[in-house]
Amino acid sequence: MKRKNDHGFPDRQAIVAFIKAHPGKVGTRDIAREFGLKNADRIELKRILRELADDGTIKKKRHTVSEPDSLPTTLVADITGRDSDGELIASPSEWDEVESGEPPKILITMPRRPKPGTAAGVGDRALLRVEPTNENEGPAYRGHIIKVFDKTKSRILGVFRSLPEGGGRLVPVDKKSADRELNIAAADTRGAQDGDLVSVDIVRTRSFGLASGRVKEKLGSVKSEKAISLIAIYAHDIPLQFSSAAEREAEAAEPANLRGREDWRDVPLVTIDPPDAKDHDDAVHAQADPDPNNKGGFIVDVAIADVSFYVQPGTALDRAALDRGNSVYFPDRVVPMLPERISNNLCSLVPGEPRGALAVRMIIAPDGRKRSHSFHRILMRSAAKLSYAQAQAAIDGRPDDTTGPLLDPILRPLYAAYACVKRARDERDPLNLDLPERKILLKSDGTVDRVVVPERLDAHKLIEEFMILANVAAAEMLEKKSLPLIYRVHDEPTLEKVHALSEFLQTLDVPFAKSGALRPALFNRVLAQLEGHDHFPLVSEVVLRAQAQAEYSSENYGHFGLNLRRYAHFTSPIRRYADLVVHRALVRALGLGEGALPDSETAESLGEVAAHISLTERRAMKAERETVDRLIAHHLADRIGSTFQGRVSGVTRAGLFVKLSETGADGLIPIRSLGTEYFNYDESRHALIGTRSGTMYQLGDVVDIRLIEAAPIAGALRFELLSSSSETSPRDRRRPGPQRRPSFKAHPGRSPDKKRKPSKPKPGKKGKGKNKGKSKGKKGKAW
């Protein structure tokens, strides 16, 4: 029986009971339908749900609600052990213990005859389908294995160092294990030479002394040109070689022709990419709309390489692409999602060559809003291949031999259309965190030449905005056709992170008044009022860390950063599997021929794909970041004792992380090197504060430092502090007020990882409890 209060509205207990009875997530529409609520009742329902979320009774995520800290029906988990009956136990791979406490346990249910790829053991990472057990004792969830990702971590990657007496030592490449070497007996080296990158199986561990290992595979010399990226590739199990079946399919592929396609070869589409781009999978064209009813509007065409024509569901190429999930980009190489025959040849929109493409034609109103769109399977011929700087130079009055003839007929209409859509973009007011991105330029021998920050041009923004429009059009079309798809979603910041940001801004006397729904404009106002101020880099970093991470999902909860209700990735199927799925769905929805999404694909099955490719995306980001760290550490290894200027990019109980102004490299200033007094870690201020002097070292401070150690293999740098803006800043640094964190003594020779005794409270002051804060890692912007 559905309980209602005196006003005919369901009471809170009934709403909560309904949510608990439907594990996973339900929307407000589901609740309204269950209790027969009219449209006029929605405001009251939303108010009740907001109150339930605020007091922790339920968890609200955009347009869906669930039990607090309940797990989604599909997730990635780590198998951590066995119970007393020998059954496998897992925990979610991503779980914030600071916000949600201990991660829930998942009991793995194994069938008598596991399917290929689903046999698992302790230490494996797997994609699970989970459901609550609804039992008072034992794990709260039961899980069924869909796919196993990583095998047990008994194998370690490292650099072999030979010993005079025979055998050698393994120096692990992982930063966390860099100081835990393995002993390799002479009989177990398999001919490894000093400096070889090897994978080693652990064969024996000891309570005291070094563990022992056996060389399993030699991967080449660490001194070779491409060894640095090779470390990340093997450390993160990124597939490097394609199967012979996938290679055969790629070689056998025939170029697209006009069969089943519209002929767009006379449309002067152009590609605009970085100068060193190897593949060109998107082309654009714009013209003024001749329709008198849309005077001042534009027609914008975005054509994307038709990868779905060549990579069809269930083939070896498809399996290889799904396994990779995405291409991975290193300074010295690319590990592609698809073989070169597909990515750099048949699907590269090179000038003058006929190429198959999936195109969207968008009608833009004078105010920059999209009025309508249509999708077309076409045969096109690119009119030109341009770089961003080349296109921008032509618009700025410096055309070259290539851009001169294109200036009036092609480039000026493109920029005019961009100026138009920018009006709608500015009105939408997406999150304006345009942080500089550094690029490493290498010498011919693979070592670092220099690090540059490419200038952000209108040409970059033009392509980005047209791609966003195309992605929105794809999501809208598939929703209209009621087809399942993979969304690109970005959740709004949690209430805890917003509250922490508000507390931090209060310490800088920066107003942060949240009223009504959370919108990117709230953060933009804070950034706008601090632009040009000393605090701007600091606040930008903290605002970035408050944001959630974008991901792929078969459920749509919008894209907070872009301030869009629906968004899907459509524009790079050469390098992202999500885009390939969207292409297939469009082909199926519009009856465009070969390569359609199979009828068997459902929202549930695509949810499994989305979880997998979200994982491979994070894997790629981590591998790319670690490779940059190692390259910079190699670059700086011969500059021990040199001084640099940098900015504090992280504050933890271990010390200060600093990003160098010259290269963007990150390194640690251990807390023990800051002086002889105790330091409090103040999480709300993102600062370390001396209890005796009141000296404060805070996120965003400019510091002068000296390099005292570089570990190239681990990609780690260690510095000592010479001077800081905390000593000269006009901010009131020496009166930080009452502290709520424990103190840690900065004492030479003592480990920064061990907790120190809290400083004795002064008379009349109450001592504080243990530090419950956790150091926060950097979070990349992956929208």
Structure characterization notes:
There is one protein chain. By secondary structure, the protein is an alpha+beta fold. Helices cover 27% and strands 26% of the residues. The protein contains 17 helices and 35 strands. Helix 11 crosses helix 12 and helix 13 (495-507) runs antiparallel to helix 15. The relative contact order is 0.08.
Structure described in brief:
This protein is of the alpha+beta class and 783 residues long. The protein has 17 helices and 35 strands.
Q: N-to-C terminal Cα separation, in Å?
A: 44 Å
Continuous helix count: 17
Helix content: 25-40%
Tell me the strand order in the biggest sheet: 4-5-6-8-7
Strand content: 25-35%
| Assembly state (oligomeric) | single chain
| CA-atom Rg in angstroms | 28 Å
Morphology: globular
